[in-house]
Amino acid sequence: MSVRRILIVVAVVVIFLCPEIGAETTGCVLTADGHSVAGAEIRIVVAETVVERYRRLASGAARKVIERTQSDDAGRFALSAESDGRHEIHTVADGFAPKVVLPGTVGEIGVVVKAAPAVEGRVTTEEGRPVPGAVVIWSGGDGEVSTAVTDESGGYSVPDPAVWANQAEVFHPAFGASAPRIHTRGFSPTAEDRADVEVRSAEFVSGTVVDGSGEPVEGAIVTVAWRPMSVTDADGRFALRAVSGASVIATHGDRIARSSVDSRDLTLTVEPGRFIEGRVINPDGGGGVPHARVFVWDSTGFQAPVDVLADATGRFEIGPLPASDYRVGTRAASAGWSMAYEEANLKRVDRLDLVLRLERGGTVSGRVTDSDGSPVAGAVVLRLGEMDPLILGHSRNFGGQVGFTGCDGRFELPAPDDGEKYRVAAVKKGLAPAVSAWIEDSAGASPVRLTLTEGRPVEGRVVGADGNPVSGVAIAVMGRSSMIAAVPPGQFFDPTVGVEWFYRTSADGSFTIPLSEETWYLAFGKEGFVPILHPAIVVGETGPLEITLSRARLLQGRVVSTDGTPLEGIDVAVNADVAFSAKAVSGIGGDFEIEVAAAGRYVLMAFDAATGRRASIPVEVPGPLVTIELPATRRVAGRVVDGDTGKGVAGARISPEMVGRSSEFYDFDETDLDGVFSFEAFEVGRYLVNVAAEGYLPPEPVEVSVGPAAATEEITVTVFRGVRAGGRVRDDNGDPVEGAQVRAVRVSDLGEEITLRGETDSDGIFDIGGLASGAVEISVRTEGYVPAHRTLELEGDVLDLVIELDRGEALSGRVLDSDGSPLPGADVVAEAGGEPGQYLRDRADEDGVFALDGMSPGPWEIRATRNGYEDARVDDVDPGSGDPLTIVLREWPSGTVVGTVEGVPEGALVSIAVWHDRGRSGRGADAKMESDGSYKVDKAPAGTVRVTAYERSYRESRERTATAEVPDGGEVRVDFDFREGSELSGRVTRHGEPVVGAFVSVSSEALGGADAVTDGGGGFSCRLQDGVYDLEVFAMDGRKREIEVEISGPTTRDIDLGGAVLAGWVVDGETGGPIGGADVDVELRSDTGAEVGSEDLKTDSTGRFRFEDLPPGRHQVRVAHPSYAQHRRDVELAIGAAGEIEVVLEKAEGMRVLLVDRRTGAPLSGTVVARNMDDEVVFDGTPRRDGKGVRLILPPGSYKVSASASDYATHTEIASAPSDEVVVGLTPGGTLIVRSEEQSPRQAKLIMPSGEEYIRCWCNRIAEVNLEGGITGIENIAAGSYDLVVSERDDSVSSYPVTVVEGQATEVLIR
Length: 1311
Description:
- Helix content is about 0%, strand content about 50%.
- β37 and β38 form a beta hairpin.
- It is an all-beta fold.
- Strands 76-75-78-79-85-84-87-88 form an 8-stranded antiparallel sheet.
- It is globular, with a radius of gyration of 35 Å.
- The protein contains 4 helices and 111 strands.
């Protein structure tokens, strides 16, 4: 029997009713341009969950309607049925798209619909056969749904999905459960086949559902992708159709089983499921939130039921569920509520009770009227933050919050977070936009009143290159913002957005747009033409516009794998095209189309987000159909099993890493409920598979070799449970502390910290598993309490810990300027002296008041900072004294920098920054370039400064830097011209072949820089000031290179990424046997010998390692293993020559270094570096805070052992190995106050009597000190005599003798 074709040409607008809505709900239905929609049918239907919807569709039942009515000639309607929150409002109107509207709490409901005429679609099989009787469900991003049933030819109709939808699903028992077809990926939204959907052939699958004893289970519901497909008979048997790999779930009462389709006869064993129950409450009133929607998902992707509706008291239950970790979310069915999420661990409990707290956020309300005071219905209302652009032209904005006015002109939007500045704009076709003043306090803000006037018309005409008018051109009107500079014009006209434009050109190409008298930018776009951004116009001053659009060129092609398989869903993009986003996604068959601005040579790039595969090829436009190939993948599969039970471990995190190559191109995977995982390897070679499973000890990485064949590699990873540490955290009243952060830290003999984290629940309970036996430090931190620490010796599970948190002391105070006025917004940071690592911070309020609590006893260091003021610090503050603290900040000497910027494109955003040091931190001020190219930076630091102009646009990123002298209280002029300078050009190749799409970055701290992308021939060019730069190249495959280049006039510099090979093996010096798992690091050096990066890997089971494509030159190799002394050596590498080395590691006892406070003997955490007597670093590590120190495995001999710790002076001891224990005692040292007569920044070093540079911290091994103009304090210097050597601006040096005394401050004056 044939199924009658269902023609769907209506919109279904779903409105979730507020619980507060009373017995009558009124509203109006409007189009986007404000016209009323008469004759629309509005009906109240019963709300349903997703699972309920699938079951209804499977049974053929209709949606239950409670009440229905129609809109009158003015588009108005009224519903009298009372809603209990489980009902929805559907509006049916011919020719319009579905949409979801969440009503606010003010005024009437305004339903704004978009025109969406019906389009024809077909559902077919992969072979092209029609599928009659299929239910097609199109859905949008806001919950809109449109449903149709196909006829005998597989045809159906749907409101144009290009306007509103983002995916389609097909429901048909004979074809199983189809994966959603993503609407915006892989096809043109204007193509005639845009509503066509292809379904995969499904296999006939049968199976049996049994209980734990193997007995059949009758009446079990078997679902595929949450869709009910079968019910078991008396023998427990079921039959259905499903695609290979689909998830099959069987539930029976409180029992559940899950499997995937990997054979045609399945056995599912149901076991007791886990349940999540709880209540959704409003914490402000404490009552339940009736009928809130609750949904759940877990790390393995399992999600069933998809959602439930809470009852009238807010209570809910979800289950049965498998044992796993879940994330539970909830949302209210009305505007003005936040969403809430909670974590739920069902691995150790059968039933978990959760409280989900939905809070009502603040609102921004107001009314929009016309110049006569009449309400304006259906106006788009935007809440815009400081970084949100104002884009007029359609109802979808690129930032902020969006809403619509109701029939009475009233609106309500969610308010921003406290302290966020915002404004409100209203837009309506035919009227000039209105924008409110900036609002800084939502709580105290009055209702916003916006008036839309007729404005002043901006008129013009759009023609093609042939002079003929172009009709239907969409026009975007934008206020000035960074969005204009950052986004190509084509982004505003991305056809996949599916917006309804307010303004388009008429048949004769003309347009008229009413605007307020301000500066605006206009962008013009139409499919098939190159979109353009018109220069800024000033309403009332700019005459009629004549806009010319040129025809776009089309690049067509296919994406396939190297074995010829078409690839769907691959991101493809074209670089070197500045007008378009120039991107697409391959569709069925791998086909894609990309519009480019002009004929020419481009780089086509393809990227597979699922596997990390990528490729790039040069292409000519116009040209023939192109084919771009991605490497064929080879599936690596495996299973993680519990070593004690043999069962699979669910939720284990899998991170594959190619030996000798970064793993950044490989996505992480997680095991399913059976412990199974897989990933796609797209290169032949050796891989290390790293596994992390909660509650288990980390296993050694498993090595797997992937060959050229496409066969699947199978591996098994065995993990063993570690011990657990758990207990309860309570306050000093014995009440549980919820949300406390708990860390369990174990330090290896080599000083490596292994940290596991947890959080206390509502009962204050925590449980951290996967710990190794031995010493573990438990630390607990949470706001408002003093951190607590506990050291344990774990031999087995310890779950009865009780950790009490002390509320500690509190400190309050004020931050003032030198005149005694408050400084709101000043940042106050407190650092504990008695509790290392405890930092507290607050920001001064409008009265300059700050407050800190949870402070441990002992001295504290309090620092206050605010831009434009000198930092201030108060030492040895005792919060227990109860005395308020006053911190005074002095305004730094400042002046003004003014100038102009030339040579940048219209609409580019240029920032100007002024810095008072040699880097880009410290004192500074900034400003934006005005539309006329001028700028003014107020409160620029006085003295010698660097002024940098940054241009950031969709075309390129460039910067220029100049040095200037800013007089205190005066003004200096600095002009920039980006047209000046010399051209740097070159080619990036690999073994002589061009590397397309490589990112080239050229930078100099003193001169600025520029970025470029290599073209189809590997070429690049940019314009820069003459000087010395660092040039870095980053290829798409991860290869990189860094060189130094000097520009003096036109300069050419080619870079070949084909590098040298370094291979070798690591052996035991005593036995000669291979050492697997050794860390091999290559520290890369530039032409000047500076370290520019590193490459690292582990030796394989035969002790071998191999690096490819290393830059030529002299580098250092470091080899380390926990049982051997470290080995370091320099290697000289050349392209074309394969270097092989043998590394012999010697076992050694070494020494144990303990770092302590010399005054108290308390153990410290810091950095220890061991050097041999030739000053070569042979070891570095971190001492343990448990007093057991760090073990340095070193060959016998004498060493310089240097140690550093925060707030302590560096100290060096001479020690011999082997040695049982070396104690290095540290003291805070003294302070050196350097007073400079110059305001310009300089650099200095402290030189010891031995001639060595004094390293202030071995954590970074940096000896240089930045001297600010005026006064610079250098803290924590070891007592002794030094020479302070200062580098002058003319490259000369000056030396000043100084003596630092322990615990004292010493001053020195430099000229």
